[in-house]
TrEMBL record:
Single GO molecular function: transmembrane transporter activity
Protein name as it appears in the record: Amino acid permease
Membrane topology field: Multi-pass membrane protein
Gene3D superfamilies: Amino acid/polyamine transporter I
Subcellular location(s) of the protein: Cell membrane
Ranges that cross the membrane: 20-43, 49-67, 98-119, 125-144, 156-176, 196-220, 232-252, 329-347, 353-376, 383-406, 412-430
Keyword Ribonucleoprotein: no
Source lineage: Bacteria, Pseudomonadati, Pseudomonadota, Gammaproteobacteria, Salinisphaerales
Organism in which the protein naturally occurs: Salinisphaera orenii MK-B5
GO cellular component terms listed in the entry, alphabetical order: plasma membrane
Length: 449
């Protein structure tokens, strides 16, 4: 063993399938099912469960392809940029990482914006901008200090969120059984105003609710038997949330078949008050705020880790790799993400979630393509099963993800295209006019404490 390997040993493999699944559920956040319910209902013309089913199909195909790639590149931690870079070339891998950065960089903004929207609806006398700042400042300070969230806290947080959702579903079904809401058991899936365009637009935005499952690939080095565990965990997490989102939206539309809300960004409070009065409204609000704060804390920490890595490896300016000598955290990256959250003063939840999904769908499409390219180059299996697993399912993912990408709003496509163009220009700078290979990200290198 070399001195370097002795000083920097590999991560210890301790995570089982159940542990990885719980982490995936915590990262995606169960209460997102209620946080964005009004937006999906409105965009889908009152057929939110069907929109979620379309998104679920896309996510299952994509999770399958991620799992295939994770089973091939299981020796070390990786993600979409690793898989695309290995299978389709480092330059395309770099651009995939750049598109993922769009997600990581702006997801905290959406998380804080959702939380601020609910607090503003409950306390309208206080400007929404004040609530956004109230999320950003303590979250940024805690991440600079380096607060650690334990596995036990993750279990408790997930359990509390699932409890709130279970109560909401039970109260909603009771309300539907005792009141004439004008709905039938099947009307939430289709109505007279249902259109393919509306469903596609809603499904494209609904994908925001699933973002986070792909991060499980970064746990490869700490997982027992990652070749089998990571693919299975990703599919379990995606299917779990798909069933959750469809179920919650179905019960929501049983009691509220229309698309009009006092505030579409905080529709969950209106629904909670309808079925459980002011007390349950307060419980849902507390759950949403706690969930959004904890989610924002974790996502800002993860996003700053990505910026730190890209700065250290020369992909982004090296200043982003500065680590505080006192707290041993990437202060510049953390603060930059906090400042980005101030964009929430000028955009709404729907717009911000949409342009984030531009990066997600682009990366998902490329991962699906990577699985097909890997099969074409290496022929890892024979027969119908291999063709279905390596060609048919990933190709379905390419088609559905690509269609949903094109279904995003014009603003999202414009912002996403500008971001991609900036990535191409930056790649040209890094590679001296594309004459050199781009720097390679190494997320499995030593991390800041």
């Amino acid at each position: 063993m070399t001195t370097e390997s002795a000083a920097n040993p590999g991560l210890k493999r301790t995570l089982t399938l159940s542990s990885v699944v719980i982490l995936g559920v915590a990262w995606v956040t169960p209460l997102i099912a209620l946080a964005t319910i009004g937006i999906i209902i409105q965009l889908s013309n009152g057929t939110a469960p069907t929109a979620y089913l379309i998104t679920l199909l896309a996510m299952v195909c994509t999770a399958w392809s991620y799992g295939r790639m994770a089973s091939v590149h299981y020796q070390s931690a990786g993600s979409a940029y690793t898989y695309v870079g290995e299978e389709m070339g480092p330059r395309l891998g770099f651009l995939t990482g750049w598109l993922i950065l769009l997600d990581y960089f702006f997801i905290p903004l959406v998380v804080w914006l959702i939380g601020a929207a609910y607090l503003s609806a409950q306390f309208p006398i206080i400007p929404m901008g004040a609530w956004i700042v109230a999320f950003i400042v303590p979250t940024t300070l805690l991440n600079i200090i380096g607060i650690q969230v334990t596995a036990r806290a993750n279990y408790l947080l997930v359990a509390f969120q699932l409890l709130v959702i279970a109560i909401f579903v039970a109260l909603s079904l009771g309300y539907f059984a005792s009141n004439d809401t004008g709905s039938t058991l099947l009307s939430p899936f289709a109505n007279d105003t249902t259109t393919i365009a509306a469903l596609a637009t809603a499904a494209a935005v609904a994908a925001y609710s699933f973002i986070g499952f792909d991060g499980l690939t970064l746990l490869t080095e700490e997982t027992i038997d990652p070749k089998r565990t990571i693919p299975r965990a990703m599919l379990i997490v995606v299917v779990f949330f798909g069933v959750l989102f469809v179920g919650v939206s179905w019960t929501a539309q049983l009691i509220h078949p229309g698309v009009e809300f006092a505030s579409v960004d905080s529709a969950a409070l209106e629904l909670a008050r309808m079925v459980g009065g002011n007390l349950f409204n307060a419980v849902v609000l507390a759950g949403l705020i706690v969930g959004q704060f904890a989610c924002g804390l974790a996502i800002q920490a993860g996003a700053s880790r990505l910026l730190f890595t890209m700065g250290r490896d020369g992909t982004l300016p090296s200043r982003l790799a500065y680590v505080s000598p006192t707290y041993r955290t990437p202060v510049v990256s953390i603060v930059l993400i906090g400042l980005t959250g101030l964009v929430g003063l000028f955009v709404d939840v729907t717009t911000s979630a949409s342009f984030i999904n531009f990066g997600a769908f682009s990366a998902f499409t490329l991962v699906n393509l990577s699985a097909i390219v890997h099969y074409w180059r290496h022929r890892p299996g024979q027969g119908i099963g291999a063709i279905l697993g390596w060609i048919v399912v990933p190709l379905a993912g390419v088609l559905i993800d690509g269609y949903l990408l094109l279904s995003l709003g014009a603003d999202a496509r414009i912002i996403g295209s500008i971001w991609l163009a900036l990535g191409v220009l930056w790649l040209a700078v890094l590679t001296r006019g594309f004459r050199q290979p781009p720097p390679k990200l190494a997320l499995d290198s030593e991390k800041p404490d």
